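Translate structure to sequence.
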């Protein structure tokens, strides 16, 4: 769904207060029960996750400072000496940090202090091989400390926003909705190539779908479609505009973005960007194919041609017929002049169906 900015702000105010989605949902039920009737759970989860990730990035410097890291590790070791359980998770909630991010800090401190024994003041993260920490978190069997391995495994299971489990879920969800997009395009008989095919052809910027033949969606020209299995909030959308959408537009012309979990309605009000925002794949009635326009123009020409013949080639009708025929040829050439495969063919041999 496309929701108003005011509604988005009201929802986010509640979601941002609770680290647990289920508690946040309960608060929404108590304070804004009408919202839960109109906004689905996937949308709410996406909104909360985006806010939480931004907050962690904002506070990254504080949590990763040397003094804070050492404080966290001392607290962890002190708790473990008392044989306490769930230490990292409790420390994370108490200090407002992602459990998986804190687990990474504890793990790095463990290797630097208890394994390497050679960490010096001023040394950075480069003391450990690139990717070493990530591999250890993904495969805790590599850790020589069973208690620490158990603690890290617990953070992976309980963290709702970070960690290898969440990364896998996000990646799978993204692929799933890209497959939905391709299936919808095939159902609507659209000619397209996907990003893998575009990379093989040497493109540096690759939307999920590039249409070989443009279509009109809601009366706007669309040359490419990008799938986003997330909610389109103002901050993330602006970043996507800079990194992806505007480069796509500059290379391929106007396009469309589908935020499958909805977006802030005001973001789609600016038609000057030539980027159409959607929250679901358009219906058949909202899509106009070039072949449909061509067929309509062709029928109009045939009708006028018969009128010319019936009226013994009236000069005015003949002139109008020639103008409409020229218009049709020009209209089709606009789309096909740049396409070597089709542009070389004569108009009567062009097949505008993609089967």
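Result:
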């Amino acid at each position: 769904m496309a929701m108003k900015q005011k509604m988005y702000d009201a929802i986010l105010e509640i979601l941002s207060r609770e680290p647990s989605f289920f508690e946040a949902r309960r608060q929404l039920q108590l304070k804004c029960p009408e919202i839960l009737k109109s906004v689905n759970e996937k949308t709410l989860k996406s909104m909360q996750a985006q806010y939480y990730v931004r907050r962690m990035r904002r506070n990254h410097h504080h949590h990763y400072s040397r003094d804070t890291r050492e404080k966290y590790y001392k607290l962890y070791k002190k708790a473990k000496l008392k044989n306490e359980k769930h230490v990292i998770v409790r420390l994370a909630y108490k200090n407002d940090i992602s459990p998986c991010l804190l687990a990474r800090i504890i793990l790095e401190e463990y290797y630097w202090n208890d394994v390497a024994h050679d960490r010096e003041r001023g040394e950075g993260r480069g003391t450990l091989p690139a990717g070493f920490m990530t591999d250890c978190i993904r495969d805790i069997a590599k850790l020589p400390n069973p208690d620490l391995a158990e603690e890290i495994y617990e953070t992976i299971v309980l963290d709702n926003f970070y960690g290898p489990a969440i990364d896998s879920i996000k990646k799978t969800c993204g692929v799933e909705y890209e497959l939905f997009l391709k299936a919808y395009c095939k159902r609507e008989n659209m000619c397209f190539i996907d990003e893998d095919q575009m990379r093989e052809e040497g493109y540096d910027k690759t939307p999920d779908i590039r249409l070989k033949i443009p279509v009109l969606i809601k009366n706007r020209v669309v040359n490419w479609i990008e799938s986003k299995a997330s909610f389109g909030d103002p901050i993330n959308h602006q970043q996507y505009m800079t990194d992806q959408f505007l480069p796509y537009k500059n290379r391929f012309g106007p396009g469309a973005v589908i935020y499958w979990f909805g977006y802030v309605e005001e973001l789609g009000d600016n038609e000057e960007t030539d980027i159409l925002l959607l929250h679901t794949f358009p219906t058949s009635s909202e899509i106009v194919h070039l072949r449909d326009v061509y067929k309509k123009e062709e029928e109009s020409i045939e009708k006028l041609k018969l009128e010319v013949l019936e009226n013994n080639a009236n000069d005015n009708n003949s002139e109008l017929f020639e103008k409409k025929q020229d218009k049709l040829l020009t209209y089709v050439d606009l789309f096909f002049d740049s396409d070597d495969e089709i542009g070389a063919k004569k108009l009567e041999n062009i097949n505008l169906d993609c089967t």
